[in-house]
């Protein structure tokens, strides 16, 4: 048997350099880099911003210049500094909201998917009801009721997004519970909770993370959106939606800069989260193809 | 009180490690009142150290029996007994003993290992979950020992399933089944997903483990070509029932049930000289939802008569020994009537 | 008769492409009329690469690096795409395993087989359907008329595999390439399916079958000649009986031993 025994020997693990990751998964690489930049800007805002974002620094509605790179808005605040400060509040709200949504939805979905019969059915129906409302309108209504404070916005983000995670996890659990390694785990003595946390959850992390990246982007839009229509944060908070909403009227009279600059940065930020999400999905597919 | 003690003694004396008594499993068909009769009235018993093969076509219910033995599926009726105690009535400690004592190796080595866990932690898991390790270090050491017994001593703490070949993965599965020093292992088609050489390696590992530990195997397989050399006893299943059971030698030589005859006649042995008796069973296995009345095999049986429609034939001794056959024609059959020729002429009854 | 060859593989070399270097060949293999040749090897020996090369379904980055596949004085590796189209699936039929992966899930199986037939022969829909019905009957599909309009998921594994066989045989090919045609089927069905393929191949004078499998039981029963592959190379090529009596190489000894238990 010596002639062929090498077949059964361990396969060497393939090492990948950062360069090849960029080549194999450019979406993930570029997306992560862009998200990294946004995060760095948020953290370093006090150092990077030339002015205080919430204090009047000069005349209103100055065009972009060497002194005020993105110009000033109608209250005389520096648009560039405000654009730089905005991700602090936007990422905080979106980040905490998304995390809570996942922490709420994932266990619910796992329970619905793993619990037999009645419990699963009940959770599914409740989710159907919540998801029947359009995401944005639901959020706006809820904020209209409770008021657009920071904790309320986070809570609303968590509530409107949680069903997405519950449904995702429900599907994952239904698929994974039929995999042989789950049977093997049960034979190894795992109780249902241990099966879910030690076996089903780790194998669901890729789609959950990909979804979290999408939710982050969507939540930023949501925060900006509700602030834009006046149901969320209020001026003079340095937040992209607030800035756009505050300056939107100026678009018609030629003062484009207080709208366009936060708008473009907002769009780029949401796009980089979408890239990260696609990248995670692609990486996971590549991994499962390698087996 | 006395009864209990007697029961305990019987269990300790270890005549049977594990028993299935009148196992029945029906699955409801969604949207109808019909049921799939996956397993009907199956009783099996296993002695220490022996290998029993459970053979039959797909849909015969053999894997369902394995799942019931492993408590992955509850029987509709009937009992699984471990060391004389029924699973249903076990207290917590007894159930833990059963979990440690009855393990499994599954069919697909690409699906039976959690891809996100290291091989070592997969093998250690039963010790951890069943509270059988003194410490994490102790658990890992014993997991490593189990891996060494199946020839995987070169596995490291970081090895993950995708670093391994099919044969190596399946041996990891064996190591996981061994680590609790079980008395009984269900082998559910453990080699059917493997290449020929890998299959031989895995069978060798299983054989060595049995020699060293005296564990009993239930070997569920449709690969009849390797059953003969491997199992002491064989049970042949057809549509949820055992139709013939005996020592491998008896079953392979006597082929007392016409289904056994047909099944063995279809086996392609890797030997050009061994073609005699090659016969082709006509027709497909009937649906387990609408089982034929009477003997389920009669729709494909070359010797079926009107009588076969009247009742399900019971397993009864054919040759005065442990050799059991469920066929009302068995008396004539056991006198050595050979059917290979009639099989060919009789198509699609 | 002896010098007539249906398919002639000469000095074929294929580069496997993947992460780990793998080369197949050189392979020299001639299929004589009515001959059934088994290609055997452990996993990773190169069987599937050989089958993909012969059926022209090699996927990037795998590529043929040399040699010829001669069919009726034409080197298929250099043939015009149009000629190749007419030969592949027509004069050279393919029977794969995994029927549910090979069949289109959204088309009735009868239509799928008819489409293959009409791609190669100028037939009306009705004529094609008629021939497919005959083929379904020939491959032992019970109630063939009703099964023509069935979708793949409505068929059992054994039934779907028969449809795949019908696809491979519908154009009355000269060469049949079969890759594990009975993988995943029960022994009783396996025997039926193989007998069917065998009788079809032997039913016409100028037809040959190349049967890739890892099951030496199948080889012992059905093949006239065996090619043993190991790590991409032909290590043994002999009549079946001889090989089983007296394996010459370690590889074939190991494969034989493995197939007989342990």
Quick tags:
heterotrimer, A: 291 residues, mainly alpha, 70% helix, elongated, disordered N terminus, C: 262 residues, alpha/beta, Rossmann fold, 6-stranded mixed β-sheet, 4-stranded antiparallel β-sheet, 11 helices, 10 strands, 24% strand
Question: What is the secondary structure topology, with strand pairs?
Answer:
The complex is a heterotrimer of chains A (291), B (349) and C (262).
Chain A: H1 18-24, H2 26-48, H3 79-114, H4 118-132, H5 135-146, H6 150-176, H7 180-187, H8 192-200, H9 205-228, H10 240-247, H11 257-290
Chain B: H1 2-13, E1 18-28, E2 35-46, E3 51-55, H2 62-69, E4 77-82, E5 85-86, H3 92-101, E6 102-105, H4 119-129, H5 136-149, H6 166-178, E7 184-188, H7 196-213, E8 216-221, H8 224-227, E9 233-238, E10 241-247, H9 248-254, H10 258-266, E11 316-317, E12 324-325, H11 330-334, H12 340-345
Parallel strand pairs in B: 3-8, 3-9, 6-7, 7-8
Antiparallel strand pairs in B: 1-2, 1-4, 4-5, 9-10, 10-12, 11-12
Helix pairs in contact in B: 4-5, 4-6, 5-6, 6-7
Chain C: E1 7-15, E2 23-31, E3 36-40, H1 47-54, E4 63-71, E5 74-75, H2 81-87, E6 92-95, H3 99-102, H4 109-120, H5 125-138, H6 144-147, H7 157-169, E7 175-179, H8 187-202, E8 208-213, H9 216-222, E9 225-230, E10 233-239, H10 240-245, H11 250-259
Parallel strand pairs in C: 3-8, 3-9, 6-7, 7-8
Antiparallel strand pairs in C: 1-2, 1-4, 4-5, 9-10
Helix pairs in contact in C: 4-5, 4-7, 7-8
Family (chain C): Belongs to the ABC transporter superfamily.
Main location (chain C): membrane
Subcellular location (chain C): Cell membrane
The CATH topology of the largest domain in chain B = Rossmann fold
Tell me roughly what share of residues is in helical segments of chain A. Answer: 55-70%
Secondary-structure element string of chain A = HHHHHHHHHHH
How many β-strand runs of chain B? 12
Low-confidence stretches of chain A: 1-15
Approximately how much beta-strand content do the residues of chain B carry? 15-25%
Structural class of chain B: alpha/beta
Instruction: Name the beta content range of chain A.
Output: under 5%
CATH architecture of the largest domain in chain B: 3-Layer(aba) Sandwich
Shape of chain B: globular
Low-confidence stretches of chain B are 5-13, 332-349
Gross geometry of chain A? elongated
CATH superfamily of the largest domain in chain B: P-loop containing nucleotide triphosphate hydrolases
Q: How does the major sheet of chain A shape up?
A: none
Helix and strand string of chain B, N-terminal first?
HEEEHEEHEHHHEHEHEEHHEEHH
Tell me the number of structural domains of chain B.
2
> Major sheet of chain B: order of its strands?
6-7-8-3-9-10-12-11
Q: N-to-C terminal Cα separation of chain B, in Å?
A: 56 Å
Helix count of chain A equals: 11
- Give the chain pair forming the largest contact, with residue counts: B-C, 38 and 37 residues
Distance between the termini of chain A: 26 Å
């Amino acid at each position: 048997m010596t002639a062929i025994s090498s077949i059964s020997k361990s396969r060497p693990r393939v090492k990948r350099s950062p360069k090849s990751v960029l080549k194999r998964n450019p979406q993930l690489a570029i997306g992560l880099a862009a998200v990294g930049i946004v995060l760095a800007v948020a953290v370093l805002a006090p150092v990077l911003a030339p002015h205080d974002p919430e204090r009047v620094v000069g005349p209103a509605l100055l065009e972009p210049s060497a002194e005020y790179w993105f110009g000033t808005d109608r209250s005389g605040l520096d648009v560039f500094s405000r654009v730089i400060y905005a991700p602090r509040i936007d990422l905080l709200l979106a980040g905490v909201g998304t995390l809570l949504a996942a922490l709420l939805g994932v266990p619910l979905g796992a329970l619905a998917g793993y619990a037999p019969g009645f419990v699963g059915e009940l959770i599914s129906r409740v989710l159907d009801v919540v998801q029947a409302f359009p995401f944005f309108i639901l959020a706006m209504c809820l904020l209209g009721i409770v008021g657009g404070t920071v904790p309320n916005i986070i809570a609303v983000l968590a509530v409107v997004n949680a069903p997405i995670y519950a449904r995702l996890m429900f599907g994952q659990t239904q698929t994974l519970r039929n995999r042989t390694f789950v049977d093997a785990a049960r034979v190894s003595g795992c109780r249902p909770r241990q099966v879910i946390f030690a076996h089903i959850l780790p194998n669901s992390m890729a789609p959950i993370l990909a979804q979290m990246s999408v939710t982050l982007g969507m939540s930023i839009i949501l925060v900006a959106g509700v602030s834009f229509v006046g149901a969320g944060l209020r001026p003079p908070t340095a937040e992209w939606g607030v800035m756009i909403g505050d300056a939107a009227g100026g678009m018609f009279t030629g003062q484009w800069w207080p709208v366009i600059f936060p708008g473009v940065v907002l769009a780029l930020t949401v796009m980089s989260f979408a890239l990260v999400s696609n990248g995670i999905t692609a990486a996971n597919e590549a991994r499962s193809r390698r087996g | 009180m006395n009864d209990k003690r007697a029961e305990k003694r019987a269990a300790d004396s270890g005549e049977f490690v594990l028993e299935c008594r009148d196992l029945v499993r029906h699955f409801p068909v969604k949207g109808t009142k019909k049921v799939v009769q996956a397993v009907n009235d199956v009783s099996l018993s296993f002695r220490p150290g022996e290998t029993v093969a459970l053979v039959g076509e797909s849909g015969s219910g053999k894997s369902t029996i394995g799942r019931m033995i492993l408590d992955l599926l509850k029987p509709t009726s009937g009992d699984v007994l471990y060391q004389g105690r029924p699973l249903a009535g076990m207290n917590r400690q007894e159930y833990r003993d059963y979990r440690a004592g009855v393990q499994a190796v599954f069919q697909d080595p690409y699906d039976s290992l959690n891809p996100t866990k290291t091989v070592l932690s997969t093998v250690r898991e039963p010790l951890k979950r069943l509270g059988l390790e003194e410490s994490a270090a102790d658990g890992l050491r014993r997991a490593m020992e189990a891996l060494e017994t199946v020839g995987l001593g070169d596995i490291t703490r970081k090895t993950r399933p995708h670093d391994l070949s099919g044969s190596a993965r399946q041996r990891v599965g064996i190591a996981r089944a061994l680590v609790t020093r079980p008395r009984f292992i269900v082998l559910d088609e453990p080699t059917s997903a493997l290449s020929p050489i890998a299959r031989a390696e895995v069978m060798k590992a299983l054989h060595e483990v049995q020699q060293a530990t005296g564990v009993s195997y239930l070997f569920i397989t449709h690969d009849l070509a390797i059953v003969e050399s491997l199992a002491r006893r064989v049970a042949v299943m057809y549509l949820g029932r055992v139709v013939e059971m005996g020592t491998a030698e008896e079953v392979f030589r006597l082929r007392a049930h016409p289904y056994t005859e047909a099944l063995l006649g279809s086996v392609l042995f890797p030997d050009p000289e061994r073609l005699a008796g090659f016969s082709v069973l006509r027709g497909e296995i009937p649906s387990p939802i609408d089982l034929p009345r009477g003997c389920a095999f009669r729709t494909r049986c070359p010797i079926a008569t009107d009588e076969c429609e009247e009742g399900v034939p019971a397993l009864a001794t054919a040759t005065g020994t442990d050799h059991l056959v469920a066929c009302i024609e068995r008396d004539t059959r056991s006198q050595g009537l050979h059917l290979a020729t009639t099989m060919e002429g009789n198509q699609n009854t | 008769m002896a010098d007539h060859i249906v398919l002639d593989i000469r000095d074929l070399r294929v580069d496997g492409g993947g992460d780990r270097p793998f080369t197949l060949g050189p392979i020299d293999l001639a299929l004589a009329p009515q001959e059934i040749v088994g290609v055997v090897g452990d996993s990773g020996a190169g069987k599937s690469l050989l089958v993909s090369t012969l059926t022209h379904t090699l996927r990037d980055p795998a590529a043929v690096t040399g040699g010829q596949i001669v069919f009726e004085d034409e080197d298929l590796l250099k043939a015009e795409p149009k000629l190749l189209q007419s030969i592949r699936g027509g004069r050279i039929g393919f029977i794969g395993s995994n029927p549910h992966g090979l069949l289109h899930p959204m088309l009735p199986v009868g239509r799928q087989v008819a489409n293959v037939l009409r791609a190669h022969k100028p037939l009306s829909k009705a004529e094609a359907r008629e021939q497919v019905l005959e083929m379904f009957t020939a491959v032992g599909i019970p109630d063939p008329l009703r099964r023509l309009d069935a979708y793949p998921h409505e068929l059992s594994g054994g039934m779907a595999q028969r449809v795949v066989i019908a696809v491979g045989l519908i154009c009355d090919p000269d060469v049949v390439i079969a890759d594990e045609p009975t993988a995943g089927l029960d022994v009783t069905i396996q025997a039926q399916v193989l007998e069917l393929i065998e009788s079809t191949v032997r039913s016409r004078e100028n037809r040959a079958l190349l049967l890739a499998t890892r099951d030496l039981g199948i080889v012992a029963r059905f093949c006239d000649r065996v090619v043993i592959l190991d790590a991409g190379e032909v290590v043994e090529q002999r009549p079946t009986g001889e090989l089983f009596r007296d394996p010459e190489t370690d590889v074939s000894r190991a494969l034989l031993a493995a197939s007989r238990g342990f």
